Amino acid sequence: MSNNIESVLQEDRVFKPTEAFKKQANITEEKYQQLKKKASEDYEGFWSDLAKEKLSWSKDFTVGLDDSNPPFYKWFSDGELNASYNCIDRHLAEKEDKLAIIFEADDGSVEQYTYKDLHDEVCRLANALTAQGVEKGDRVVIYMPMIPQAVFAMQACARIGAIHSIVFGGFSAEALRDRIEDAGAKMVITANAGRRGGKSVPLKGAVDEALEKGGDSVRKVIVYKRTDDDVKMKDDRDISWHDAVAGMSNYHDAVMVNAEHPLFLLYTSGSTGKPKGIQHSTGGYLLNAHLTNEWVFDLKDSDVFWCTADVGWITGHTYVAYGPLSMGMTMLMFEGVPTYPDAGRFWQICQDHGVTVFYTAPTAIRALMKFGDDLPKQYDLSKLRLLGTVGEPINPEAWMWYHEVIGRGECPIMDTWWQTETGAHMIAPIPGVTDLKPGSCTKPLPGIDAHIVDEEGKELTHGEGGYLVIRKPWPSMVRTIWGDDERFVDTYFAMFKNKYYVVGDSAHLDTDGNFWIMGRIDDVLNVSGHRLGTMEIESALVSHEKVAEAAVVGKPHDVKGESVFAFVVLNQEIPEGDARLALVQELRNHVAKEIGPIAKPDDIRFGSNLPKTRSGKIMRRLLRSIAKGEEITSDTSTLEDPSILDQFMQPNK
Ligand code: WT7
């Protein structure tokens, strides 16, 4: 990370919007100034006007922001609407035959769904969910591969006012059970398996395992048969998707809900304890989802938009399932992996479907960059007109490669900073307006009141690093942590006594007012753009019978950003040779079983005790140095037993 920050700090290249781009941009300089002016003069009116203009309401709201009970803010709270109606029905009169979804499967086969097709699929499923006893406010866990049916399921839930909670298909049965139980889900929607990289990835088995030892709230499991793999069905509980929708009408009257009605929960890692169920609203969330696709991605009717994120993450909610559809655009979904059948797959898809706007993560760019320029050059990428990135700071080298090799030196790069909790982009360029600097997410969007402050909450100007905070509530902000209002307040607002939403990142400003994100300030790792709590991984390790104690830190990694490095104390003697290597494997697999393969430590080291101060605090700073292979130069005199550092420095042989 430190190398990265240094190269970022020295970055002084500036990329101005081209005249050609400016001419066709959704947001021109003039419009941008108007938006900013309105936001600063009449904040509530700014968002209210946009909510009226961009969304369709069945009952108009009269209140914009309700801040009577901070930090529990409400937006448009006496209005009513339906997210699925906004994403589908309202486009039908003019765009029935326009493509909503282009889907390319792992094996290269393609399916297309028009807005009318999407409507029919979603309505049939919505009717099926109702027939299976799902009601407004019930929670439905979705555990699906990256296929259009995942979006149908989300939209069908939204349509009947049920609250969906997607669990990424890469999470284990244990992780799935925790989330099902925390949400109190009544139904699980899954598939027998998915296809990735030419192989089947089983899913239904994990649902069975999760429900064997818990998840008692679940009444029904709907199973989509995606592959030819066998699937065991449990009588009374399981029903195939096919049977559930058979005979269902393609007409469904969307259930209008209050703007504050939860649209979905999405679990994400924090620095302490179990994952948090981030609760999003219907009206406020949809507004920012819609606006950011219009402002930042400059989406237009003629575009083919591809966001590579899985629907299991927030990016797949806002920039696959809701935002582009709310705008009535064509979006692409891809089931597979970027390296199958070879590392040209992304570029082949961009070429074959004429993708115009492409959004992915720095880790994918860095991974594909390693294969050189020849692969992308084999494909016609001339339709691309805008590129985006998200998930972690992008190093200037990767930014330049993306811009030059993928974007022909013409496509602006939108480095978008946001989080599961913010619902949509917060700090990001407006492509026809903002000057770009490789490695900076540039400036807060109109209406987003972002600042950098020191420990006392004093605002910092350029140069100094500090806490990134948001002062004014915005429409798509997290409403609470599901079932835990107290944790919500503690996590995001307690630090500065409700004055700011505290993001959890550190950042600094340059003299042009650009934001540079430096990294997390808490014990959260960012592995390939995925957020992992060190404590979750530590708990997973400690749940293994041979482990007494564990500490996990991040180690800089040139593709993943960070990798997981674990320090383990066993409750038995440290084995030697092959036995030790076997134990390393056993522990890695154990973490995969407890959380999922993404959380597997790359390195595990053993010692007879963790380095602790005399008061018992684990000295993570030292562990980070060991992980990096740095010499320990700092003072270790406060350590209870300095000799254990030598133990942890020994690689496993
Ligand atoms: C954390 C949020 C937002 C969707 C994907 C991750 C980091 C995100 C950027 C960026 C630097 C970034 C932050 C943030 N992050 N985007 N453009 N530049 N850092 O969502 O799992 O909620 O993680 O990802 O640390 O807090 P998430």
UniProtKB/TrEMBL annotation:
Catalyzes the conversion of acetate into acetyl-CoA (AcCoA), an essential intermediate at the junction of anabolic and catabolic pathways. AcsA undergoes a two-step reaction. In the first half reaction, AcsA combines acetate with ATP to form acetyl-adenylate (AcAMP) intermediate. In the second half reaction, it can then transfer the acetyl group from AcAMP to the sulfhydryl group of CoA, forming the product AcCoA. Keywords: Acetylation, ATP-binding, Ligase, Magnesium, Metal-binding, Nucleotide-binding. Residues 89-474 form the AMP-dependent synthetase/ligase domain. Its cofactor is Mg(2+). The keyword Nucleotide-binding applies. GO terms for biological process: acetyl-CoA biosynthetic process from acetate. GO terms for molecular function: acetate-CoA ligase activity; AMP binding; ATP binding; metal ion binding. Belongs to the ATP-dependent AMP-binding enzyme family. Its EC number is 6.2.1.1. This is Acetyl-coenzyme A synthetase. The lineage of its organism: Bacteria, Pseudomonadati, Pseudomonadota, Gammaproteobacteria, Thiotrichales. CoA binds at residues 196-199, 315, 528. The modification N6-acetyllysine is found at residue 617. Residues 32-87 form the Acetyl-coenzyme A synthetase N-terminal domain. Mg(2+) binds at residues 542, 544, 547. ATP binds at residues 391-393, 415-420, 505, 520, 531. It comes from the Bacteria. The keyword Secreted does not apply. SUPFAM superfamilies: Acetyl-CoA synthetase-like (SSF56801). Acetylated. Deacetylation by the SIR2-homolog deacetylase activates the enzyme. The gene is acsA. Residues 536-617 form the AMP-binding enzyme C-terminal domain. It comes from Hydrogenovibrio crunogenus. One of its GO terms (cellular component) is cytosol. InterPro entries: Ac_CoA_lig, ACAS_N, AMP-bd_C, AMP-bd_C_sf, AMP-binding_CS, AMP-dep_synth/lig_dom, ANL_N_sf. It catalyses: acetate + ATP + CoA = acetyl-CoA + AMP + diphosphate.
